[in-house]
Write a structure and sequence with these properties.
single chain; 220 residues; mainly alpha; two-stranded parallel ribbon; 9 helices; 42% helix
Length: 220
């Protein structure tokens, strides 16, 4: 949903417009029907909080809200039709799932009508123990399958602790931290070496600095 587009992406655009086409929902139904008869489809709208809801006076504001109200209303969805074909899709009872990293954008007054239609389920973050015991080793195995050159068979508990500190406990930074760590673990001849405590401390410190908010200013 962060890519914008609103009604045109979800519901299609009217044929009068140049470059008009059907929407992604109808395209998904067609693709699914190629594998067999489709009933009660599951539609996932990713990163709803990044949709362009906050620009006052924007046409896209009305587009996104209007499209979301149509597909999240139980009664409205029964009369769903793509704007390009203008033909109702009968017996179309989808299940809608939306994901969001934060709820604040969905609690704005002009978006409140949409959030009231959704049942919110919160998922907690991984604990440090879960990250070190499961998440980081799984991410490393996936990385090893894609880059089997100069990659150790497995990580030691100390190396997992280093990568955890490098990614600052953020799951999205694990792969980047693994790359940085392995990049310093081998010399130019491809020989594995042992990092000193000073090198490890510097690696962790510089990795955390890259996650800090960037700013422009003057220094004395």
């Amino acid at each position: 949903m962060g890519n914008g587009g609103g009604t045109n992406v979800l519901l299609g655009s009217t044929p009068e417009w140049k470059g008009a086409s059907n929407g992604r929902i109808l395209s998904s139904i067609w693709e699914a029907n190629k594998k067999g008869c489709l009933g009660n489809p599951l539609i996932v709208l990713d990163e709803l909080d990044k949709a362009n809801f906050s620009v006052e006076g924007s046409n896209n504001l009305q587009d996104v809200l209007g499209a979301m109200v149509i597909i999240t209303g139980d009664e409205n969805i029964k009369h769903f039709q793509d704007l390009f074909f203008e033909v109702p899709i009968r017996r179309f009872y989808p299940n809608i799932i939306c994901t969001a990293n934060q709820l604040d954008p969905l609690l704005e007054p002009h978006v409140k009508s949409l959030s009231d239609r959704l049942q919110v389920i919160h998922f907690r973050d991984y604990t440090a123990q879960e990250m070190k015991k499961t998440i980081i080793p799984l991410q490393f195995e996936k990385f090893k399958q894609e880059h089997n050159n100069l990659v150790p068979d497995k990580l030691s508990s100390q190396e997992i602790d280093i990568i955890y500190d490098m990614c600052n406990g953020q799951t999205r930074k694990i792969t980047i931290s693994i790359k940085k760590y392995l990049g310093t673990l081998f010399d130019l001849n491809g020989k594995r070496r042992k990092l000193s405590s000073e090198e490890i401390e510097c690696l962790i410190r510089t990795s955390k600095m890259s996650y800090e908010e960037k700013c422009i200013g003057f220094c004395s």
